Amino acid sequence: MRALKVLNLFVLSFVLYLALVGSLHWHELLAGAGVALLSALLVAPMLASVPWVIDPRRWLAFLIYLPVFLWALIKANFHIAYLVLHPRLPIFPSIRRVKSTLEGPLARAMLANSITLTPGTLTVEVEGQDLYVHCVDAKFADDKEACAKILAPFEKHIRRISK
């Protein structure tokens, strides 16, 4: 277990070091490996659990999630542009309570941030499984329809990332 923690922290530290340095010269690689190993050995005993940053399934799920999020972002931008440019500005703002099925604070935080980053929606508060979302154009019949429209693009992908 300790070796897995050290390995996870080493890889994370080494990648971060190389990203900040921006060089792949042999002396930078050697220095980065040394600094990453030292930091991993010093920090690993302080962690309660194994970081999940190296799990390739999560990275694959995240890479699958990116185009889904970008597509939702593009659609929302066009929708907001339509609302702004429409002569009568047909908006129906409201705050909706949507219930997430995600477990764990990291998954709910990722969902809340995904909703907030999408134009026209803003996560106002998170209380357990409930998210209170301000929508600029909320023409929903009920909260169940709001859940389907707001959470559907993100929830199943975030569940795969946070497993």
Q: Could you characterize the architecture of this molecule?
A:
With 163 residues, this protein is mainly alpha-helical. It folds into 2 domains: 2-46, no CATH class; 57-162, no CATH class. It is built from 5 helices and 3 strands. It has helices spanning 2-21, 26-43, 56-85, 105-117, 143-162, and strands at 94-99, 121-127, 130-135. The protein has a 3-stranded antiparallel beta sheet with strand order 1-3-2. Strand 2 and strand 3 (130-135) form a beta hairpin. Helix 3 runs antiparallel to helix 5. The longest helix is centred in the middle third of the chain and has 30 residues, at 56-85. The model has no long low-confidence stretch (mean pLDDT 84).
Task: Please summarize what this structure is.
The chain folds into two domains: 2-46, no CATH class; 57-162, no CATH class. Helices cover 62% and strands 12% of the residues.
**Order of strands across the main sheet:** 1-3-2
The succession of helices and strands, N to C, reads HHHEHEEH
End-to-end span in angstroms?
19 Å
Shape: elongated
Structural class, from secondary structure content? mainly alpha
* Unreliable sequence segments: none
Overall number of strands: 3
- Residue-averaged pLDDT, rounded? 84
Beta-strand share of residues: 5-15%
Overall tally of structural domains: 2
Radius of gyration: 21 Å
